[in-house]
Amino acid sequence: MSETTSAPTAQKKGIENFSSRNVFILAAIGSAVGLGNIWRFPYVAYENGGGAFIIPYLCALIGAGIPLLFLDYAIGQRYRGSVPLSFARISRWMESLGWWQTLVCFIIGIYYAVIVAWAAMYFIFSANQAWGEDPNGFFFGEFLQLSDKVEVGFDFVGGVFWPQLLVWVVVFVVLVLGVNKGIARANLIFMPLLLVMFIAMVVQALLLPGATDGLNALFTPNWSALGDPMVWTAAVGQIFFSLSVGFGIMVTYASYLKRKTDLTGSGLVVGFANSSFEILAGIGVFAALGFMANASGTGVNEVADAGIGLAFVAFPTIISEAPAGGIIGLLFFGSLLFAGFTSMISIIEVVVAAVRDKLAISRVAATITVVAIMATVSLLLFPTTTGLYVLDVFDEFINKYGILAGALVAVIAVSWIARKLPVLSRHLDKLSSFKTGRVWMVMVGAIAPIALTVMLVNDVIKKMEEGYGGYDAAFVGLYGWGMVAAVVVGAIILTLLPWSKRADTSFDEDAEDAEVHAIYVNRPDTPDAPLEADASTETEGAK
């Protein structure tokens, strides 16, 4: 694709914009704050040095997470398109990297829906503690009806199928309404609810007997852990996954920003808000685990868990034993539901935007196409007696070899092959209050690739030596490695398909630089004053 003189803003994507910077920040936080913040971070911190983990965690946030967040913002806002279109405007061959990230979102979206459905059902179950005296047996037996045989079957579980279908219907309605009427309004409703409910849950947890034991277990520092390279790797991994960087979400959301938006200032707010929520989640979760250990007469280390085991087994146990347990259950699973839903909206929007740009079709048509395909695959695979096995392998491999590997290749391509970091740095600096410069370029072009490479190499070695999850090698090969290979091949195939004749894939770097420079020199105050959304934008947001 050669660069032409077509103006970058004279295109279909420019029609849809977030009504204000604050709305964008709320949507970005809604995407970043998801299931992993609640059920992954507390255990990762506990297992990797407790209070000492905060040091590598903050280093990873500042040295890799926020710089990569800035990179996604700069690409999305400068090149004004979905992930494939934005990368294609950088260089034609890089379109495949955009489709790689889009297909990662496709895979995550199809299984994320079933977890949101579980959270919705457990929100209801909390009212009468339907799991009874055996939360473990209820979840895996009565609720999921999990098969003993690890395979892909099609014995559907109605108690999961129907709420999962409802989740897809609600997601469809939100996305078909568009950026402001759908995505923005959903976040304006669900994010305040999430914050209020989660703070209330944390307060309730802190009042439980034994809560102090849980907090001591989480925050007592193990300083020797700082000498373990795997602890630093775990910190980078947690920051990377929780910030929603590297798989198209923030590129897509940033493409809906108006030119007069403080990108780096927004990124700092999103990054630190996300990490603050994670620490709050750690406090609430381990206070509750401290109560659980106290009630059972065991140590916190014997009840601490992560992921599905924490959410759907440990917490129901806590709810059954705790004073006002029903209230804690409603608050916890309500928080899980809202956090998962806002993240799922952002994941599916990546795919909708990509299809919309490639085919040059309306939002309604793109949403119908994407949701129909994704929901069909999702409803065939996951609300079944074997769905948990597929979900587990999909989640592990798409996170490690879809997101991490895709991000590594994209960062190297942008930094060292296309050599766009100086251009993107200038773009950020002219529109933002917090300057990037050479330090940011070093972090993105050197530190981030090294950290990602170390994580990937270590994980590949581990899986080659130990396999994964005790599953049969053929099952892991097909649904793990095979799925990742399908993503890469699919990205290449989608790149080879022609763009619609109505699609505008052209981009003029000089015209874009001139437009950004005009904004910079015409600031109302001094050249160094931060840019805010214009008055008309703020008025529209207030309405």
From TrEMBL:
Record's keyword annotation contains DNA damage: no
Keyword field: Membrane, Symport, Transmembrane, Transmembrane helix, Transport
Native source organism of the sequence: Gulosibacter bifidus
Organism domain of life: Bacteria
CDD domains assigned to the protein according to its UniProt record, in alphabetical order: SLC6sbd_u1
Annotated family: Belongs to the sodium:neurotransmitter symporter (SNF) (TC 2.A.22) family.
Location within or outside the cell: Membrane
This protein's name: Transporter
SUPFAM superfamilies: SNF-like
Topology relative to the membrane: Multi-pass membrane protein
Region (Disordered): 523-543
Principal subcellular localization: membrane
Membrane-crossing residue ranges in chain numbering: 23-42, 54-76, 97-125, 156-177, 189-211, 231-256, 268-293, 327-352, 364-391, 397-418, 439-458, 478-497
